[in-house]
Amino acid sequence: xxxxxxxxxxxxxxxxxxxxxxxxxxxxxxxxxxxxxxxxxxxxxxxxxxxxxxxxxxxxxxxxxxxxxxxxxxxxxxxxxxxxxxxxxxxxxxxxxxxxxxxxxxxxxxxxxxxxxxxxxxxxxxxxxxxxxxxxxxxxxxxxxxxxxxxxxxxxxxxxxxxxxxxxxxxxxxxxxxxxxxxxxxxxxxxxxxxxxxxxxxxxxxxxxxxxxxxxxxxxxxxxxxxxxxxxxxxxxxxxxxxxxxxxxxxxxxxxxxxxxxxxxxxxxxxxxxxxxxxxxxxxxxxxxxxxxxxxxxxxxxxxxxxxxxxxxxxxxxxxxxxxxxxxxxxxxxxxxxxxxxxxxxxxxxxxxxxxxxxxxxxxxxxxxxxxxxxxxxxxxxxxxxxxxxxxxxxxxxxxxxxxxxxxxxxxxxxxxxxxxxxxxxxxxxxxxxxxxxxxxxxxxxxxxxxxxxxxxxxxxxxxxxxxxxxxxxxxxxxxxxxxxxxxxxxxxxxxxxxxxxxxxxxxxxxxxxxxxxxxxxxxxxxxxxxxxxxxxxxxxxxxxxxxxxxxxxxxxxxxxxxxxxxxxxxxxxxxxxxxxxxxxxxxxxxxxxxxxxxxxxxxxxxxxxxxxxxxxxxxxxxxxxxxxxxxxxxxxxxxxxxxxxxxxxxxxxxxxxxxxxxxxxxxxxxxxxxxxxxxxxxxxxxxxxxxxxxxxxxxx
Length: 701
Ligand SMILES: Cc1cc2nc3c(=O)[nH]c(=O)nc-3n(C[C@H](O)[C@H](O)[C@H](O)COP(=O)(O)OP(=O)(O)OC[C@H]3O[C@@H](n4cnc5c(N)ncnc54)[C@H](O)[C@@H]3O)c2cc1C
What we know:
Elements: H1 8-12, H2 23-26, H3 33-41, H4 43-58, H5 72-89, H6 94-99, H7 103-114, H8 116-125, H9 127-136, H10 140-148, E1 154-157, E2 173-177, E3 182-186, E4 194-198, E5 206-214, E6 220-229, E7 242-246, E8 258-263, E9 266-269, E10 278-280, E11 286-288, H11 292-331, E12 333-334, E13 342-343, H12 348-382, H13 390-422, H14 434-442, H15 451-472, H16 489-492, H17 504-532, H18 537-542, H19 545-569, H20 576-594, H21 598-603, H22 609-630, H23 634-641, H24 645-648, H25 659-669, H26 681-684, H27 694-700
Parallel strand pairs: 1-5, 2-5
Antiparallel strand pairs: 2-3, 3-9, 4-8, 5-6, 7-8, 10-11, 12-13
Flavin-adenine dinucleotide binds near residues 156, 446, 449 and 453.
């Protein structure tokens, strides 16, 4: 998050919201929504997003409405055509990205908010793929040129039918043939079929294929990636030796063509080996280029990009869902103490269900900007041959992005579902957009690493540091400082809660205690399990997940998120009225998340006996009080996060608040709303022949 001076020029580029029923709450807000928007995302990003959205709205190809129903084939065709148009318009060039790297996630968010299939297809086949090609292949220049000029499309093929999370055990083979200076790709079994590769189903001409590298002496050197030409760009047909198919209908993201693939003695040139970590000589000798530990740290860091971006995608979905739910709640009325019905946002349960997610939208947004800055710093360092800290930086980014992707993905999933229910029956309309958000978001919890498996990456990292501290007195210290407090774990574990539930600092101390306590408890349990299983770390770790290592990774993430938000709120330049609201959201988020760990705080005696009786009550009463205080700010808070109506595309959440007019519009425009079905004679003419006796039934059988 950048705190920048807000100019009237930038403020003017954001249109005022149209007048309507939402004005009731908009007028009650204590801050200016435009200034808050620029505070949380910076002027450049705000201006850029506004420009992209205005352009899309004017483009006929991007016309859509909330009641639209497309077949899979229509969706694919449109996604492809829109992707082409995006390339023609070219909102930013590489220099812009270098000047302001925040424009990269801004671009993904801006297009993703319009349609996730479109941006996922675009990024997978272009940016993500080009980054891979540029850093790794010998003939990368031509390929990058082809990709940029729409002569080639890339995809990444890792997952196989029988192996996803456990990539080490992938079965596809790439065997070097010294006679022809080629690798021979094979799919040794049905289970080794490559599956799920995005863009492969109907479009990709190239794939980064992960396979086990074999040298001519039949020795396996483990998993390596290869740049493979899979389809003829002139005919779009797979080359001989490759079978490609489309994965078919999915729960969501149906504009994206996921595919499956088989290799049968398919030959690729030696130069196809993506050789930044290892190479092969012409006589077939395997030559590693970096040591195993260098490879691990740097590779882990680079591979974090996907998770960093998915974290942002999840936060974007969370934000869109909460915009819809809050706007609807501020206009929908039910019951009331007198003749006038209350807007449902006035109800305590509605506030309690939704406002923690409003707070999460801000707190996580800040986390993303801050993590992204760390990633950019790491990325720049990783291309600097002199600076030697890459491994540690990469490992920390890997740990942070793993838990961030998991927890943000789940929070967004829950926010979307809560928002759907908070909007009652109308929330269930396709035209409300919540169903599409739910279905498209769902995959974020699985691809680029299943969430539960990712949390293990974070807990492994933390446990390793903790072990080194205990066994070798090694200082716990990391390049981005996320773990430094663990170094003081012995003192932290002697502390008690100071009882101040209104102070974010006190809650950060409590969180640090939870992390240290879970580390200690997990370490104790691991030692017992290691003894039980004769030092078998795999089994020991497996039995130490639920309530221990998994909770550790989640608490570590939440602690880091709150620390970063606290730092942000302490910035001098934030105007006081905005700081007050931001502090309330930080506190609400912290209390809402820490409530789930109260048992730990009791069990560990962190909450002293004298205060233990009312601690739970204090936490809960403060949550309710904060929800109530944020009620009059909520509409303005979601206005800050909201894209224009054309992008949000929800008939229950237009910025003018005229929900019933827009819902009726959606009802009356849906396909066949007023049409008699062409099967109506099934009722009017063809009556059911009801079988009345046993003999008639038997005769039928
Ligand atoms: C829409 C979509 C797009 C995708 N795009 C691509 C792509 O472009 N390229 C590509 O290669 N792949 C892609 N994938 C595949 C994706 O990366 C994998 O599905 C993902 O990595 C999970 O692997 P899996 O499906 O094999 O799950 P599994 O590994 O079989 O996991 C199944 C369950 O087992 C649990 N589990 C597994 N191991 C453990 C363990 N050690 N401890 C505890 N629990 C465990 C997991 O938590 C999970 O709940 C895509 C998937 C989807 C849905």
